[in-house]
Automatic annotation (TrEMBL):
Domain Orn/DAP/Arg decarboxylase 2 N-terminal stretches: 36-280
Lineage top rank: taxon: Bacteria
Protein name: Diaminopimelate decarboxylase
Modified positions (N6-(pyridoxal phosphate)lysine) in chain numbering: 60
Presence of the UniProt keyword Nucleotide-binding in the record: no
Family: Belongs to the Orn/Lys/Arg decarboxylase class-II family. LysA subfamily.
Gene name of this polypeptide: lysA
Amino-acid positions noted as binding pyridoxal 5'-phosphate in the UniProt annotation, renumbered to this chain: 240, 274-277, 385
Reactions this protein catalyses: meso-2,6-diaminopimelate + H(+) = L-lysine + CO2
Pfam families hit by this protein: Orn_Arg_deC_N, Orn_DAP_Arg_deC
Residues of the Orn/DAP/Arg decarboxylase 2 C-terminal domain: 30-383
Amino acid sequence: MDDFHYRQGQLYAEDVNLDTLADELGTPLYVYSRHTFEQHYDRIAAAFAELDPIICYSIKSCGNVHICKLLAERGAGMDVVSGGEIHRAQLAGADMSKIVYAGVGKSDDEIRMGIEAGIGWFNIESEAEFENIDAIAKQLGKTTRGALRVNPDVADPRTHAKTTTGKKETKFGVDIERARKFFETYGKNEHCRLNAIHLHIGSPIYSPEPYVMAIRKALALIDELRGQGHEIEAIDIGGGYAADYEAGKSPAYDEYAAAIVPLLKGKGLKVILEPGRTIAGNAGLLLTEVQYRKQGGAKQFVIVDTGMHHLLRPAMYDAFHFIWPTRVSREHAPGPRSESMDLPALETVEIVGPICETGDVLAKARSIPPVKRGDRLAIFTAGAYGMAMASNYNAFPRPAEVLVEGDAYRVIRRRETYDDLVAAEMANVGAN
Ligand code: LLP
C-alpha cells in the first residue's frame, strides 16, 4: 500500500495534511511520498535479491533529481534514454557504472557524453548505431560495453499499442535472427564490446508470463552465442512492471520474481532490471483545485486547474487514474480505492482541464462525491509519467513538486513562473 491515506475524511501524504500543503504551496501540485519510493525500491530489491541484480531505476518515469538521488543513495543504478537523463543521473550522484542507456536515436554528442561518463552499457538498437558508438569510442581512445536490444516478439495483450515495444515491427532493437548476425559481424569489435543482451517488452506488463517467454528466448540465444565463443556477461530484462491504478495496492514484485528468478539463477549472468512505473507510480499524486462547475447537455463538468498539460496519460492512452476529493465525509473515506466508486451519494461528472482541446479530459463519466468551487481533488498514481510528460502547452507554468518525508516536506521543484516560460526566448533576443 502507498502512503496516501484518509484520516477522519482528510487526505494525508504520510503525516502531512494535503489541504494544509495546498494552502501553503498552491495547486496544481505534484506530491510524492519518500517512504513509498523507498519501500517500492527495497521490495523489488528484496524480491530479486537471489540474483543480486543491478536495479536501474528508469528515470523517464519520474526524473526529478531529488528522487533520483534518494534512489541512488539506496544503491539504484539508472536507465536513461538521453543526454539529459545522463545529466540528471550525474547530478543525483548515481554510480555511472550502473547506468544503462537505451534509445534508438542517440546523437554523437550523447554517445560521447555516455562514454566519457563511463556508463555501464549502451543498449544497442541498430547496426548503424553500434558502428557509430564503436567509432566514437575509438576516436576517444576508450572502450565501452554494448548490450544488444533484442525483440523477442512477445507482448502483453493488455499493454496499450502506444507503449508496447517487444513485437517484431517496432523501431526498437533487432529480432532474434538479426541478433545472431549482429554478433557474427560485431562480436569481436574492441571499442564497443558487445557482451550483453537487453530486452524491454513494453509497459505496463501486468503478469510474469510475457517476461518468462521473452527471457526463455533470450537465454536460448545466449546459449547459442556462448557456444560460438562469444562472452555474454549480462542480461538486462528491462522494465514494464505494473503499478496499481485502481486500488493503489503494492506492486506484485514477488509474483514477477517467483517466475523470473529461477530462469536466471546460476546462468553466470549479471542481471539488470529497469523498473520505472512500478517504483514511481503510486509514490505520487497530483493535487488540483476545482475552478468551476458547468453543465453541458446532459453532462456535468468539473473544471479543475490542471489537465492534459500536466498529466497527459488519460488524454493520450485513455488511462484510468482514481480521482477523489481531499476532504470527504466519513461515508466517502475510501477503502480500496476504485471500489469507493460504488459508494452511495456520488455524482457522475466529467473532470476536465483548462486546455483549449476537447480531449483535455482527466476522467470521463466518473463517480465522485459532490464537489464545488474551491474543493481539492487528488489524482492518484500520478508519480510515473506525470510530471515527466508535463508541458507548457497553452503557456501554463508547470506545477511545483514536493517530497513528503514523515511529517515534513521539501519543495523539490519550485512552481514555474511566467518568466520561466519565456526565459530561453529572452536569452536570444537580439541574437538574430
Ligand atoms: N526500459 C526501457 C528501455 C523503456 O523504454 C522503459 C519505458 C522502461 C525501461 C521503464 O518502463 P516502466 O517500468 O516504467 O514501465 N508514458 C507511458 C509509458 C512509456 C514507457 C516508455 N518506456 C505511460 O505513461 O504509460
